[in-house]
Amino acid sequence: MTAPSPIRDVARLVHAEILRTVEQRPGTPGALAGHELLTSGLGLTSLQVAGIAARLAEAVGADPFSSMALTEIRTVGDLCRALEAAAAGTGTGPELRSARLRAEARQRRLAR
Hints:
Layout lengths: L9 H13 L23 H15 L15 H13 L7 H16 L1
């Protein structure tokens, strides 16, 4: 018997990882919806979103930033779609590299 592909459960994995990150705060939601904003809605920082994405990338073997830039991932659903697109090998267009470089530079500034 083969194990199910983890990419089939992208939404479940994404939701679980986000909830693990925000569970230390009072008022943490018990469930998430695709339209929920990661930063202004759930209170995550862009660095936390990047960390969540990195952990998910490791879990499924697909980097969500290969399909969408950090600045394009605003909602729970965006993160699910980015991970699914990365696993499928699709991207969002020629501006992706430029947006990714801007996001990485911002992350370096924030990490200082």
